[in-house]
Amino acid sequence: MTYGLETAEHPEQLRRVAIDPVSRVEGHGKVTILLDDDDKVRQVRLHVVEFRGFERFIQGRPYWEVPVMVQRLCGICPVSHHLAASKAMDAIVGTKRLTPTAEKVRRLMHYGQILQSHALHFFHLCSPDLLFGFASEVAKRNIVGVAAAHPETARRGVLLRRFGQEVIRVTAGKRIHGTGSIPGGVNKSVTREERDVLLADIYDMVAWSRDAVALVKQLHGQDPALYNSFGVFRSGMMSLVAPDGALDFYDGSLRARDESGAILFDHVNYREYASYIREEVKPWSYMKFPFLSSLGAEKGWYKVGPLARVQNCDHIASPLADAERREFVDYAGGSPIHAPLAYHWTRMIEMLHAAETIKDLLHDDDIMGDDLVSTGEHAREGIGVIEAPRGTLIHHYRVNDDDLVTMCNLIVSTTHNNQAMNEAIRHVAKRYLSGHRLTEGLLNHIEVAIRAFDPCLSCATHALGQMALELTLVGADGVELDQLARHGDGTVSRSPP
Amino acid sequence: MSILDIDERLFTLLDKVEFDRSPITDIKEVGECDVGIIEGGLCNAENVEVLREFRRRCKVLVALGACAINGGLPAQRNHLSLPLLLQEVYRSEPGAEYGLIPNDPELPLPLNKVHPLHEVVRIDHFIPGCPPSADAIWQVLTGLLEGREHPLDHSLIHFD
Questions:
Q1: Residue A412 C-alpha, separation from nearest chain B C-alpha, in angstroms
Q2: CB A450, CB A141: distance < 8 Å
Q3: Where do runs of H (alpha helix) occur along A179-223?
Q4: Residue B137's pLDDT band (cuts 50, 70, 90)
Q5: pTM > 0.90
Q6: Nearest CA in chain B to A411
């Protein structure tokens, strides 16, 4: 593993091409490519350009507000933030074990979210590249084009997402930014009527998810050379696994493997995450670069998300998804698959698992129970970790005697994949862009690699950045509203009022 | 993305409108538009540029959601000092290495405060909520297509 193409020696002598903004992803980012006189690619970077400041402004808020606040990090996976924060706050209120109703309702909520998010990313955002080709017509390369050319695929994508959103609405109160999960449990369970409405559709969702796996397999089969080699780089991987090694999106312990699949650590209590993971800051992105501390920044970065989870676990607890997992693992003869496009295949396997699990939970009467909350002795620190659609999500808080948050640290899924995404686009750039006149279609290859990871760039930008100039913001009426503070060398000075 | 919560009504919409720059298309520059919908508050210089450009090219501009209307949750940083925030997130957070603060020219300059959109440009319609309900979004879109002066019923005007 090297940082080839990360930093060119004389950037001032090179020509800059930007992909700005990266489209069909959640949030804002851009890619810059530096080329020499022979059109050879010398530097490629994915810049995350937003800034938020959640870790700091969450301080001073009462802990019970946090699960509702922090989900505003994201419009696609708010439930993951809602639940990761809730799990951290379970520790604050001293919950040793959730009631069966609370645990199952939270799981239902989370699996609903995995289903809707995976459907959204595959069908609405990524399928146009895969169905029409990476360099196909821009006007057609979107869900509108898919609806025209493959109406049934588009319809199922929309309805799978709708179903997942309805599961969330029933368990969280509303589809986006619900309030169902609270420290120590949940504030509502599922009524019989709500359950019956969901049960009426779930069998279609399982069947359609199975068809979606078949669709991705068919795409791989049509052009294995492309799918197996596009943007390939080797790296370790990390995810939560259940005590028996099963894939688990809601809870478990941390397991990491190296690039050849050998286990680096296993069944690590996630409350110990800080002993295993550190984060590097680079000047050209607001998003940090996590790595396994035992291996160091240069060798210790890793992948998270569907491709990591499906290969990191020992099995999947639902039968249809597990059969698909075995087929996927056999595809490469047992060695790890690192191909970014295989994210889509594993994502659909996970969507099938989510649909099967929702079906089982809907048949479990515990979701209709009324024992919703359990608490115990208050604590001052809470850490919650969950497998969000895009990968491992870490929330860490401390509170004071007045129950106000004094410390917040978040490592979101897309941040874990930061180095991996950068490596993928450098491989793509080297192979497809170097020595060519850059066309829109060629540049879209870079975006195809980024989309494979399913990045959520707005989640990833909870941190704040540095400024290098001074500007003034003037309102529509000519009144000066704000200034941009000035900083040049990384030192922090006082900003203008 | 909350527009997608209109579910199958998306296909009805697609028969009547053409999407320009949006999170679900690959169009990078804003063209001439009849209706522009914009979400999120103004956090950095680039947001301001995009908004002004958008205003110039759209006949009708709609602010969607709490952040666009009043800065939303990100505006909670407005009472804090930006340099101290940077310091904290990049230099004193647990697990953070190499105490530098990102400062590359490719990164847009953050504003000291998060601003709502109407402070900088004229906004024609507001859809409140975090996010607004799919029904509210749908009613505004269909209302504008039908040329109604008040495309959102009073009953749908509420936050959350």
A1: 14
A2: no
A3: 192-222
A4: very high
A5: yes
A6: B95
